[in-house]
Amino acid sequence: MIEYKGQKAELTKNELKILYYLFKNSGKICSRNDIVDFLWDNQLYVDDNALSVNITRIRDKLAAIGLVDFIKNKTQARIYIMSGKQYLKNQLPVILINLLGMLVLALFLIASDNPIQTVLFIFAVWSIVLVFYLCWHFIFTRKKISE
């Protein structure tokens, strides 16, 4: 079962496995083959249409509870992606590494007897650059996906 804003939808075992896989790879482009391999593991032959049917059913059920266009389809490459709602969660390692870098640099600058204004200025510039990078990357990724 999945719930959104008080609305509920029953999902089959395969539908839940597909959504789990897409959430696990949120923000990434997932190939049909990867989804099929995850869903039907070591089975010799699975009809390609089976995945399409499951995705269509998931979309219909999500739309019924108010989640329209939650799963995107890139038809040329025949791959599925989740919407960008969890973008910042996916970028958390980048953010944490930058914060750690800022902390190390700040400690080094303070230990080198630099004025606190210099440390704060570098901290502010680094933060602004990081925010611009994350915004640019998000917009670029969204444009690339929608092409």
A few lines on this structure:
With 147 residues, the protein is mainly α. The chain has six helices and five strands.
Supply database-style keywords:
147 residues; 5 strands; two-stranded antiparallel sheet; mainly alpha
Describe this structure in words.
With 147 residues, this protein is mostly helical. Helices cover 63% and strands 12% of the residues. The chain has 6 helices and 5 strands. It has helices at residues 13-24, 32-40, 48-64, 87-90, 92-111, 116-146, and strands spanning 2-4, 7-9, 29-31, 71-74, 79-82. A 3-stranded antiparallel beta sheet has the order 3-5-4. Strand 1 and strand 2 form a beta hairpin. The two termini are 33 Å apart. Residues 76-80 and 143-147 have low confidence and may be disordered.
On the 0 to 100 scale, the average pLDDT is: 79
Number of helices: 6
- Uncertain ranges: 76-80, 143-147
Strand order of the largest sheet: 3-5-4
Count the beta strands. 5
State the order of secondary-structure elements, H for helix, E for strand: EEHEHHEEHHH
Molecular shape: elongated
Radius of gyration: 21 Å
- Residues in helices, as a percent range: 55-70%
The separation of the N and C termini measures 33 Å
Report strand %: 5-15%
The biggest sheet amounts to: 3 strands, antiparallel
Write the layout of secondary structure elements.
Elements lengths: L1 E3 L2 E3 L3 H12 L4 E3 H9 L7 H17 L6 E4 L4 E4 L4 H4 L1 H20 L4 H31 L1
Antiparallel strand pairs: 1-2, 3-5, 4-5
Helix pairs in contact: 1-3, 5-6
